[in-house]
Amino acid sequence: MERAFFEQLAMPLFDQLYNHACWLTGDRADAEDLVQETYAKALKGFGSFAEGTNLRAWMFRILRNAFLNSRSGLKQKTSYLEDEETGLDEAVAHEVTPEALLLATESQEAVFRALEKLPVAHREIILLCDVDEMSYREIAQVLDVPAGTVMSRLARARRNLRAALGAREAVR
Amino acid sequence: MTACGQDRNALAAYLDGELAGEQERKLAEHLRSCPECAAEVAAQVRLRRAMKPAAMRFAPSAEFRRKVQGQIAPKRSAGLRWLWPAAVAALAMMVLAVVWTRQSAARNEAFQEVADLHVADMASANPYDVVSSDRHTVKPWFQGKIPFAFNLPEFAGSEFTLLGGKLVYLHQQATAQLVVGTGKHKISVMIVQDDAKFGTALPFAGGVSVRDSFNVETWEKNGLRFYVIGDAEQGAIHRLAQALQGANG
Ligand SMILES: [Zn+2]
């Protein structure tokens, strides 16, 4: 009974979780491993999952922890630790004018490439916010950080992305 | 900080729908009078829009989905029995995808102008010609400005809030644009006379589609063409479309 209920609630998240896993790992085989592990762990823990809380945030959090413990995640872990320190100088990012930013977003490929090159912690939070359209509260649940950290990390991530897009525009 | 002293993070939080009511109102007010911030917001909106296709960049294979589903599905359904319906469903999905892709290619052109109008409005420093949540204020404002009349449903008590209206031009024809809010999303409703000239200029019969990050619904009724477009979920677009169809039946 519980399995059927879990299947009904969790399978609609399948595409989203897989897409997110691909963006995190940059590799489809690694992403499949992560998603499979996520569903196995979530099914196991489903008994302790309180109905009415956010299943999506819960499953993204399981996926994230699986990623951090995976081979590809461990390689990138340093970028998490560095996140608080390596925030770009605000002035640099904002030399990128709105006009330059508009121009840069005209190429879908350029946006994707800039996103791919971000440190994983920044790519992750931008995806959760702009692509999966999570609220700051949901993101805080996924990342297991206070809401204030979500805001500051998101701001750094967006500055970083903006600088990357602006730099591309400049060399073109 | 921007030159006018506005906190850039507040602009981002505004676009994320994370500002409290009072702050949100103040910022919206400021955007109307500050071209610099309006340009900044427009660029940020575009960046977010350009990010949306990242949601569908990687799709799992049907085989992988079956594998995981098989692992979590109730035991009794294991075995060959569930394979058959899954295969049929996958095939149906492929057929649907092909049909949808073909149709959407033909429609993209037609959507572009409507989508552009919607985006231009969302990014505009002066989004509305008439600002009111009262349909009895907004509807009469269009009288004499457009060569047709339309009705608006009662939004009070619904999930939607009327934000305002604007006179725009679609293929050189006067068009009533209404902006309706729901949650953190804004939806544009565009109403224009659906004459023969317009019909050929916008070769689009009707239905529901996704254009970039937007959901769109359009139909023709009594010589009027309606577009409902926005980044709200498809269900919300559809419910708004139904309310409008009810009011203009
Ligand atoms: Zn300003």
Structure characterization notes:
The complex is a heterodimer of chains A (172) and B (249). Chain A has 172 residues and is mostly helical. Chain A folds into two domains: 1-69, Orthogonal Bundle (Rna Polymerase Sigma Factor, Chain: A), CATH 1.10.1740; 76-172, Winged helix-like DNA-binding domain superfamily/Winged helix DNA-binding domain (Arc Repressor Mutant, subunit A, Orthogonal Bundle). Chain A has eleven helices and no strands. Chain A has helices at 2-10, 14-25, 28-45, 55-69, 71-82, 90-94, 98-104, 108-117, 120-131, 136-143, 147-171. Chain A starts with a helix and ends with a helix. In chain A, 40% of the residues are buried. The model of chain B is unreliable at 77-82, 95-109 and 197-206 (pLDDT under 50). In chain B, 28% of the residues are buried. Chain B has a seven-stranded antiparallel beta sheet. Chain B has 249 residues and is an alpha+beta fold. The A-B interface holds A 1, 3-4, 6-7, 10-11, 14-16, 18-19, 22-23, 28, 31-32, 35-36, 39-40, 43, 94, 98-99, 101-102, 105, 108, 111-112, 115, 126-127, 129-132, 135-136, 151, 154-155, 158, 161-162, 165 and B 8-9, 12-13, 16-18, 39-40, 42-44, 46-60, 64-65, 67-69, 71-75. The complex binds zinc ion. Zinc ion (ZN) is lined by residues 2, 4, 6, 30, 34, 36-37 of chain B.
